Amino acid sequence: MGQFKENLHDYLASEEGKDFMKKIMKDLLVDVLTTQQKIAAEERR
To answer: Dihedral (C-alpha) 29, 31, 35, 38: value to the nearest 10 degrees?
Structure first.
């Protein structure tokens, strides 16, 4: 498991890894925001 962890750390430190993390974070944010908007819309009814 240690080897995998080191490889993952190196990957995340690279440009490719940073772009990957940005994409995931953006997707997560979009999911959270759309979910909150749906909930807010339901509550207004």
So the answer is: 110
- Residues 23 and 19: their CA atoms lie apart, in Å, by 6
Q: How many helices (H) and strands (E) does the chain have?
A: 2, 0
pTM of the model: 0.61
pLDDT at 2: 85
**Residue 14 carries which side chain, given as an amino acid letter?**
S
The domain locations on the chain are 2-44
Task: Name residues whose C-beta falls within 8 Å of residue 20's C-beta, 6 or more positions apart in sequence.
Answer: 11, 12
For the segment 1-23, what is each residue's pLDDT rounded down to a tens digit?
689 999 999 998 999 999 999 99
